[in-house]
Specification:
Elements (H helix, E strand, L loop, with lengths): L7 E5 L2 E4 H11 L3 H18 L6 H14 L5 H10 L4 H22 L3 H8 L5 E9 L2 H14 L3 H8 L11 E6 L5 H8 L6 E7 L2 E11 L5 H22 L5 H4 L5
Helix pairs in contact: 2-5, 3-5, 5-10, 6-10
Length: 260
């Protein structure tokens, strides 16, 4: 095996740093995503080959055109300069594009016939609701503010800006944006999805304290294009995780980076 101490990874102020030293630091910091990405890419390429998935010249050209448009690479010179800044050759870039097209085609193949089924099985889990939060440390104060809102017509958002202990949402009057049903604890989910838009529910005990929650609007799941893409991504991630768990994987590069 190649001695990693003799492989220069980079130089800093004239000092050469070996690949061994880079890998040792990566191992110590747990920063080995590059290895994981390489393993995933290999599993994807193996699966594509087994299924006879290939990339045509037309598909590769379309991918290149789309990439240029998305990254403002409108002429050959701009593309050349961009490649230089990324330390890529044109052949490297073509290989990356081919891999991306291959991954996309495999993803479509694996998801074929499963998207509608997954949506039907897990439809409720895709529901979202836009909420505003008013978080208090004491239940009594939360109940008092709820009474002011329901009985005296006090403005929820104004109270949130004044009293909420949640620094992230307080400046926006408590507005927390869209939340998935699956992100919520059971009691929180039941209270929120059991209410009508515009209603205030609570106080609800959470890890952050006692919460009053205003239901801004519901975004109930629909099998539109965005949802289809999200489900395909989830199915592909599940498949890749399963492949990793079944694969025989060894990393001699890391095993060989330990000192004797």
């Amino acid at each position: 095996m190649v001695d990693l101490n003799e492989c220069v990874a980079f130089e800093v102020n004239g000092e050469q740093v070996s690949l061994y030293d880079v890998l040792k630091l990566a191992k110590l910091n747990g920063s080995l995503q590059l290895i994981d990405d390489g393993i995933d890419a290999t599993l994807i390429q193996q699966a594509a080959k087994q299924r006879g998935i290939t990339v045509s010249d037309e598909e590769l050209q379309q991918a290149a055109d789309e990439y240029r448009a998305a990254n403002d690479l409108y002429d050959a010179e701009t593309t050349r300069v961009w490649l230089e800044t990324k330390n890529l050759s044109y052949e490297d870039w073509e290989s990356l594009l081919e891999y991306q097209v291959t991954e996309r085609k495999l993803r479509e193949t694996l998801a074929a016939g499963l998207v509608d089924q997954r949506f039907a099985e897990q439809r409720l889990s895709f529901d979202k609701v836009a909420i505003s939060r008013l978080v208090l440390t004491e239940e009594g104060v939360a109940r008092e503010l709820r009474a002011q809102i329901l009985e005296d017509g006090a403005d929820f958002h104004a109270l949130a800006r004044e009293y909420s202990s949640d620094a992230a949402t307080r400046p926006a009057g408590g507005y927390a944006g869209l939340k998935l049903r699956t992100e919520m604890e059971p009691a929180f989910e039941a209270a929120v999805f059991g209410a009508q838009p515009g209603r205030v529910v609570g106080p609800i005990k959470t890890d952050d304290g006692w919460e009053l929650v205003k239901i801004e609007r519901f975004a109930m799941a629909a099998l539109d294009d965005e949802m289809r893409e999200n489900i395909k991504t989830a199915l592909f991630s599940e498949w890749l995780s399963e492949q990793r768990s079944k694969a025989r994987i060894s990393v001699p590069l890391l095993e060989g980076s330990d000192e004797e």
